[in-house]
Amino acid sequence: MIQEFLMLADRAEAANGKIFIHGGGVDRHLVNPRANPPYQLNADVAFGILTDWTETNTDHVFALKILNEDGHQAWGMEAQFQVGRPPGAKAGQQFRQLIAVRGPIPMPARGAFKLVLEIDGKEQEPPFRFWIDAAPVPQQ
User: Fold this and answer.
1) Which of 43, 57, 124, 125 sits a CA distance of 20 to 30 A from 51?
2) 107 CB-contact burial (10 Å; exposed 0-12 / middle 13-18 / buried 19+)
3) What is the C-alpha to C-alpha distance for residues 94 and 12, in angstroms, rounded to an integer?
4) 20-74, pLDDT tens digit by residue?
5) Any idea where the domains of the chain sit in the sequence?
6) Residue 127 half-sphere exposure, CB side, CA atoms within 13 Å?
7) What is the fold, at CATH topology level, of the domain defined by 2-134?
């Protein structure tokens, strides 16, 4: 079982075997410079997992983690999932599981972060790197 893709998006939704991504791959997020933490990361997480034939019809766990520059966890969640074999599946084929997790995500600080996906306790590659910066203040 491997990560096929992982990203932040302005909006993401998984439905009917498709993933709908609006503004995907956004790596710089701006917050009000006068706001106090926690900052609201107004983004959704979109990812795809490829599951091998032998890993279907059993329980698995994915964990999403956002780590700061020092490797400390700033946010995280986990969920259990199972991938079945649809009718007509061919022996040995892989199955794609598409998942969207809706934001906003509370963040403790501005700075550089990386979003990491773990599947059954194994960290997947590559992480998705992003930044949270203060929005420019308009000159009056």
Assistant:
1) 43
2) buried
3) 23
4) 999 999 999 999 999 999 999 999 999 999 999 999 999 999 999 999 999 999 9
5) 2-134
6) 18
7) Immunoglobulin-like (2.60.40)
